[in-house]
Design goal:
Helices cover 43% and strands 21% of the residues. The chain has 4 helices and 4 strands, in the order ααβββααβ. The protein is rod-shaped, with a radius of gyration of 40 Å. The protein is α+β, with helices and mostly antiparallel strands and 140 residues long. α3 crosses α4.
């Protein structure tokens, strides 16, 4: 008799300790996919609404434009390497500033007069100052 009671107690114990999800029933499991689909469609619709709203910016970003920067630097020397075969001149400007020591440019000019005018315009110097500072090296 004690043995039957112990077996009944073990069976009742096993039945009472089912996983929690097994006791939810078929109604829950049948409605869960429907709720998931409704949630997915709702989120998709909300995302589409947010992303399709117009976004006004005060400043527009422009691509494919060159930014013009003017730097006030004390120019020490200007070295110009004229490559007549390629039709370009590489210019290296040494400055006496501690933060900006060297500037490099490449111009599609090989004639010294045009080059001096271009350098003067780029650096904000007079042509006479450029003429005093520039040293030419010509490659053929």
């Amino acid at each position: 008799m004690a043995r039957n009671t112990q077996q009944n107690h073990q069976q009742n114990h096993q039945q009472n300790h089912q996983p929690w999800w097994q006791g939810l029933g078929t109604d829950f499991w049948l409605t869960l996919p429907v709720l998931a689909i409704l949630f997915w469609f709702g989120c998709s619709w909300m995302t589409a609404q947010v992303l399709s709203r117009p976004y006004d910016t005060k400043e527009k970003l422009e691509a494919d434009t060159q930014l013009e920067v003017r730097v006030a630097a004390n120019v020490a020397t200007i070295k110009a390497l004229i490559n007549r075969a390629e039709g370009i001149t590489q210019v290296e400007v040494q400055t006496s500033d501690s933060t900006l020591r060297k500037l490099e440019f490449e111009f599609p000019v090989t004639e010294p007069n045009q080059l001096e005018a271009t350098i003067a315009q780029e650096l904000g110097l007079s042509r006479a100052d450029v003429r005093k500072l520039v040293r030419y090296q010509i490659m053929d």
